Amino acid sequence: MKVPPARVEAFLKKPDAAARAVLLYGPDAGLVRERADRLARLVVPDDNDPFRISELTGPGLAEDPPRLADEAAAMCFGGGQRVVRVRDAGDAAAPAFASFLDDPQGDGLVVVEAGDLAKKSKLREAFEASKHGAAIACYVEEGAALAGTVRAALAARGLKASDSTVNILAALLGPDRQLLNSEADKLALYLGEAGGTVEEADVLACAADSAEATLDDAIDAALLGSRPATDQALRRLAAEGEAPVRVMRGLARHFLRLSGVGARIESGEPMESALRSLRPPLFFKREPAFRRQLQIWRGPRLADALARVTQAELRCKETGQPDQLLSERVFLELAGMARAAG
């Protein structure tokens, strides 16, 4: 069966009795894992129970299809229902699941995790066509849905937040469910056992990765031509031990985002719409700087900058190269280019 979006939450709380195997798939790997964990814990609350949980992989089942039925029908030491978790499933393992779903043995629940599967995927077809199977799509959330997820993650930890703070968290973390849960845990620890209300300052002090925030500061300062702010951010990056190769990759990603938005605007798309197309979304506090950078970094200047960054990354990977100096020189060169552009 195919579980429609409106029924997913109810299914995760109480799966259909006929469903012996559940396929969770989609582009949001964090959401796939979270939902798989929820289903497994309905049967076995202890994630580390070696007697009631069996771990398999899709490639492994493709080579040994009968093992799925064997694991699902195995008796547990000490009794209780069994959970069989299958990770990295793909179409190569579809025959194993199709055979199991035709005549499931035992009473074990099979929980399957997969990536983004096409509509005509054999694996999806096996689950959607069977009364003993269920397929749940896990798509990237945005807008009101993402805000609701952020609010629910905070509430589960005894926290609440204003709409503006929730929106800040959503923009900062994006739709990655694993990252969201990790940062919500950090906020809960930061605020203490009493819980309470999460403020914007708490988010910026706790949830934002300091190295990532410092890299953003360095990028914005350089691309807007501020030499003093660039120097300051580069010193903080060095003190935090950020790898020069990672810094160059972050800079290259930023230029690609500028290039993508710039191309949409040049094709006639309104700037607001082009900015909303960014994935992950642009953190709202960086939006004014990003808009100004769009005016400076375009055409040949942007192409030249991206070539410099790419070349610097390659040199940083070479043995014996002064990678820290190479990285810092690129930032200073970019700051000079931005100043020259006015």
What structural class results from the helix and strand content?
Answer: alpha/beta
Low-pLDDT segments, ≥5 res: none
For this structure, the CATH topology of the largest domain is Rossmann fold
Tally of alpha and pi helices: 17
Computed Rg:
24 Å
Can you tell me about this structure?
With 342 residues, the protein is an alpha/beta fold. 59% of the residues lie in helices and 10% in strands. The strands form two sheets. A five-stranded parallel beta sheet has the order 2-3-4-1-5, with helices on both faces. Strands 6-7 form a two-stranded parallel ribbon. The N and C termini lie far apart (60 Å).
Topology:
Elements: H1 5-13, E1 21-25, H2 29-43, E2 53-57, H3 58-63, H4 66-73, E3 83-89, H5 94-102, E4 109-114, H6 122-128, E5 133-137, H7 143-155, E6 159-161, H8 163-173, H9 177-191, E7 196-198, H10 200-207, H11 210-223, H12 227-239, H13 244-266, H14 271-276, H15 287-296, H16 299-316, H17 323-340
Parallel strand pairs: 1-4, 1-5, 2-3, 3-4, 6-7
Helix pairs in contact: 5-6, 7-8, 9-10, 11-12, 11-17, 12-17, 13-16, 13-17, 16-17
